[in-house]
Amino acid sequence: MKPPAAAGKGGAVDPSLPRFRCQECRRALVVVGVDSYADRLPAHAASGNHASSVQGSVMGASRMENSYVVLSRQNRSQGPRIPPRPPSAAAPHTEPSQPTRAIEGSYIVLPPPAASIYKTPASEGGGAQLTPPGVNSSSPSPGNNSGFHSSVTVLKRAFEIASSQTQVEQPLCLECMRVLSDKMDKEIEDVNADIKAYEASLQRLEQEPYNILSETDFQKEKQKIEEEEKKLKAAIEEAEKLYSEVTSEMKDLEIKSKQFEELEERYWHEFNSFQFQLKSHQEERDAVFAKIEVSQVHLELLKRTNVLNDAFYISHDGVIGTINNFRLGRLSNVEVEWDEINAAWGQAALLLHTMAQYFTPKFQYRIKIHPMGSYPRVTDIHNNTYELFGPVNLFWSTRFDKAMTWFLTCLQEFAEFAVSLDKENNVPSEKSLKLPYKIDGDKVGSHTIVLSFNKNENWTKALKYMLCNLKWVLYWFIGNTSFAPPSGPVRAQSLKNKSS
Predict the structure, then answer these.
(1) Domain limits, the chain
(2) Which of 116, 149, 336, 449 is the most buried (most CB within 10 A)?
(3) Could you report the per-residue pLDDT of 237-295, keeping only the tens digit for each?
(4) DSSP string of 287-308?
(5) Other beta carbons less than 10 A from residue 153's beta carbon
(6) What is the CATH number of domain 307-499?
(7) Kind and range of the H or E element at 384?
(8) Which of 120-124, 140-144, 162-166, 483-487 shows the lowest mean pLDDT across its residues?
(9) For residue 72, what pLDDT is reported?
(10) H helices then E strands: how many in the chain?
(11) CA torsion angle 170 175 177 179 (round to 10)
């Protein structure tokens, strides 16, 4: 059997022949006739020496005789007369050539058990003739076809037997067989080296002298070994016991470890929840602190701002004094309604009453001011009450005049109280309260505050001077007190002063 490319040199390939492939290099192999094979087999291979060496490498040490199979020549000269193919043969087609490697001597090598099945009584030479001698191989007789089919079947069976016994897939081309032979030669060399090493060790062991123990020594050695065995068994039992204890402890520790992992997981969940709550509280706290800081800034601003200074704005409109834009007084050429004058007196009475009430009982509030909006009243030291509002008769306004006079007296007493308080606090005289206009009875400066039989211009000037003194007293009050406008704190301060 050889590659199909070789057929081009000796003749056409019979398309009826089955195609086989080398199981190693997968090259196509074709069965050819005896003469074609003999023509292409080298001389040293034809003599059987080379074939024997290949067979010895693959199958063992047996000879190569009858270890390869070649079929008898078919009638290749008659091209049109092609014998019928076996049913299992593949469809005829031209196999491509293999130019990369030489194909000389590519034939099938079988082991002796497989090759023996081809031996017949007539076969004595190097090959097994499947066609009986004397029969024309080119004859397309039915018997010839039957022999051809049986030969192909036997050849396939031979390949199967060779594969099963050599543990190598068959068929193989000669080149692959040489590679495999070299590989197996190397393995055989390794095995022979191992055999030599074992034999050397065995010889060395046989040459060693044997010390034969006496019965007594043998028993002692035996007893010693038995004791060591008992100790080892006891140690093994102890180790097994320790192993069981350690295993039990390991299980307990694994259970505890799992519990700790659950506790740790729960802890981290709670920790994260706590951190989230803490962060929320911190943000809320920071927001509150920011609000407190802003409130403190506003508080400091409010502390520096006295409500009385904004609540009672004292000024003038020409020669007429004003308080909260209410004119107090009138001129001959400027008519001011009594409602406006009454409102101005109400604001002045409320201011003086507030300042006097703040220092009660330290300030002897003998003359009581009753701020009642636009209808204020004044109570003298004899508990006589007078109306501090109009309209009144310009020629007979005794009660109104007395109310204005007692109001002026109350203002003078509060100013004297302020001066005495500055002395107690060691305030320098130049910084102590001094009224810009002297109050003497019903006079302010050089003008009387009485309306009866008085000119409007003089009365208006007296009222303007009175408001100016009231403004100075207000400035002193703002600089020496932290006034709280609600009545509750005023009353609490009064109670505190009483208790002290």
Answers:
(1) 4-188, 218-303, 307-499
(2) 449
(3) 999 999 999 999 999 999 999 999 999 999 999 999 999 999 999 999 999 999 999 99
(4) HHHHHHHHHHHHHHHHHTS-HH
(5) 13
(6) 1.10.418.40
(7) none
(8) 120-124
(9) 41
(10) 13, 11
(11) -130
